[in-house]
Design goal:
By secondary structure, this protein is an alpha+beta fold. Helix content is about 25%, strand content about 35%. The chain has one domain (about 5-90): RRM (RNA recognition motif) domain (Alpha-Beta Plaits, 2-Layer Sandwich), CATH 3.30.70.330.
Length: about 100
C-alpha cells in the first residue's frame, strides 16, 4: 500500500482546471502512475479531508523533446480529475 502523500504528486493549475474547480467541484492532480482510482480517492479524502464523489484517470504520454541534435522524451505520467461533494472545496486551489 502506497502512502497517500506519494500518490498525489502535484496539483495541475490551468485555465480549464481552475474553471472546473470553481463551477463543477473538480480538482486535477498529477498522480503516481501505479495508483488506481480507489487509492487516489482514499489519498484525496485523507489529505484534504473532503468527500470524493468520483475519480477520472487519464494516462498521459510523454512528449518528444530536443536538445540540439539529441532527441528524447519526457516521461509518461498519470492525471486524475477528482470530483468532491457539493459544498466542499479544497483550500489548496482557492485564490489561484
Amino acid at each position: 500500500m502506497m502512502n497517500p502523500y506519494e500518490i498525489l504528486r502535484r496539483p495541475i493549475l490551468t485555465e480549464k482546471s481552475n474553471l472546473q474547480s470553481e463551477y463543477l467541484h473538480r480538482y486535477t492532480f498529477e498522480v503516481d502512475t501505479r495508483a488506481n482510482k480507489h487509492q487516489i480517492k482514499h489519498a484525496v479524502e485523507h489529505v484534504f479531508n473532503v468527500k470524493v464523489v468520483a475519480v477520472n484517470v487519464i494516462s498521459m504520454r510523454g512528449k518528444r523533446r530536443r536538445m540540439g541534435r539529441i532527441e528524447g522524451r519526457t516521461p509518461d505520467w498519470k492525471k486524475a480529475i477528482v470530483t468532491v461533494a457539493a459544498g466542499q472545496t479544497i483550500q489548496f486551489f482557492e485564490g489561484v
